[in-house]
Amino acid sequence: MSNEAILGSALNEASTAIITVKDEEPFIVFFRCMLYLLALYVAGDIVCGKILRVIPPLVGHIGMGILLGPNGYDFVPSSMVAAWPILGELGLVLMLCQAGLEMDFQVLRAVGPRGAFMALVGSILPTLIGFLLSFYVLELPHESALAVGCSFGPTSAGIALNVLQPCGILKTALGQLIVAIAIVDDIIALVVLSQLKALTADEISASAIAIPIVSALLWLFAGGAVALYVMPIVLSKLTILERNVLTRCASRDTSKQEDNSHHSANSQTQDHYEKPMTSLQLTHIVILLFALLPATYYSQASHLLGAFLAGLSACQQPQAANAYNGELGKIVTWLMRIFFGAFIAFAIPVQLFRDRQVFGTGCLLALSLLGKIMTGPLLTPVHLPQPKTQQAGDGSVTSTTSNGQTSDRCCFDDQHTRDCFVVGFSMAGEAEFAMLVAGFGFSEGLLDEEIYASTVFAILLSTILSPVLLRLTLAFLNVEQQDNNDECDDDQSSCHGLSSNTPVNTTVVSNGDENPADNDVGIEVVDMERSHETKEKPWHKTLFE
Questions:
Q1: What's the rounded Cα separation, in Å, for the pair 371 and 518?
Q2: Which of the pair, 499 or 171, is modelled with greater confidence?
Q3: Which one of 116, 156, 323, 544 counts the least CB within 10 Å of its CB?
């Protein structure tokens, strides 16, 4: 090789190195990250949330993440490609903790067993359909067909929470049933993943198969019982102790001042410890998070289950959810944008979707999601007691049932149909764990590149179509929540037009247009839009008002 060629090659390498260094300069990385976050916000919250309205923001976040991510135009700095998904997973952890805080003990006790059963059926049906399609239609080996089927078993808690929470459905009995289903589904997905790992290992041992199953069941049942029955007592006693300490400290400070009046001293004392008590409640939740996340992970269960149990432990503490949302609410919102725009979007191999064979096979495998939607009819029993209704003088509607004499509502009426769609479309969303199972099958050689791309394409369809269909259902079928009358007893529950199998004695539904987030949870409420002649808003105007 001549000296000129050597010199030219060296200059080319040097120029390439200089360009790479410039691209990775701290300011360039910082500014690209700012533009990436801005693009996520514009695509999701402005274009989808404000302009289109019918499309949930998370679809815009995923689309922009694919466009700017490593499988798209590669706009995101390479040094941050691994960092953004970690931040997104942090958002999922914090949001599951938030979901645990939003749980209502009485309603969860009523819908918990049904949720566990629906989660089990909702995992088996799509897995079975995916296995049969892969084995008989695509003619894959049974190991590969099993890996494909298992990819359609999980339910994305992040997708359901992102749609239900802004609509105010999360605090209803139906919303808490869906959360219970999603949590149990994630546990089942982790157990399935651990079994796939054990079966693909060089040496198959009984402990590798049994430990994840036993650990998940113990954390689910024993951990849930401790969170609901033991931790409220512990936290209540701890709160009383902390309150007494703060009161004494505040009283000692005020006693040193001039004795103007007894009222001013009491007022000053109360203001002195109210804010610290809010901070201490948040501290309790954070401590539980740091304790339960590694405990569940290293015991071969799901760390996401630990996040949910941390919130569930404090769900019966007054003002705990308000303290958490006040301090971390906006942070969780931004981290969830990153979760969909990075954790989900960066793992999608869009360059493989250009093959028509991949597209067709992916659409075929997407039929497995029918197993999720079919779980919806399991929501309500065949006969559900229908309360009697009467118009009150103040314009509200009172609904009562007499002991032993109740009229039955057919399970195939409009209200039941609506709730079945809500549950089915909530369960059809698959994202994080489904991608994880499919990726494991590909890395272990169970799936070739074409089948892996087809499976991911089917999962992507569910990730996009599920929230869109769920949002349309909530809007078109007019699932609008209404506040309870103040005369309702505290031990009653309300699910605001959403059917539930929770027994009910008296229900009062106000016709006012108030904030749905202030409602008590768990009362069965008659669907006022269909039971009485009221002025309804057009469905297209009810989209996320």
A1: 35
A2: 171
A3: 544
Query: How crowded is residue 273: how many other Cβ atoms within 10 Å of its Cβ?
Result: 20
DSSP string, 195-238: HHHHHHSSS--HHHHHHHHHHHHIIIIIIHHIIIIIHHHHHHHH
Q: What is the pLDDT of residue 104?
A: 80
Burial class (CB in 10 A: 0-12, 13-18, 19+), 286: middle
Rounded Cα gap, residues 88 and 91, in angstroms: 5
Q: Model confidence over 218-271: pLDDT tens digits? A: 998 899 899 999 999 999 999 888 888 877 877 776 665 555 555 544 555 455
Rounded to 5°, angle at Cα 513 from 511 and 515? 125
- Residue 58: CB atoms within 10 Å: 29
Q: What pLDDT score does 355 carry?
A: 84
**Strand ranges for 267-416 from DSSP E:** 383-386, 388-391, 397-400, 407-410
Buried b (16+ CB within 10 A) or exposed e, 513-538: eeebeebbbbbbbbbbbbbeeeeeee
Render pLDDT for 192-215 as a digit per residue (tens, 0 to 9). Answer: 877 777 777 777 778 878 888 888
Q: What is the largest CA-CA distance in the chain?
A: 101
> From CA 506, how far away is CA 527, in angstroms rounded?
14
Q: Find all residues with CB under 8 Å of 428, minimum gap 6, and list them.
A: 369, 372, 373, 462, 465, 466, 469
Amino acid symbol at 149? G
Tell me the average pLDDT across 275-292: 87
**Sheet of strand 397-400, all strands in order from the earlier edge strand to the far edge:** 388-391, 397-400, 506-509
Give the CA distances from residue 95 to residues 108, 125, 157, in Å, rounded to whole numbers and listed in that order. 18, 27, 9
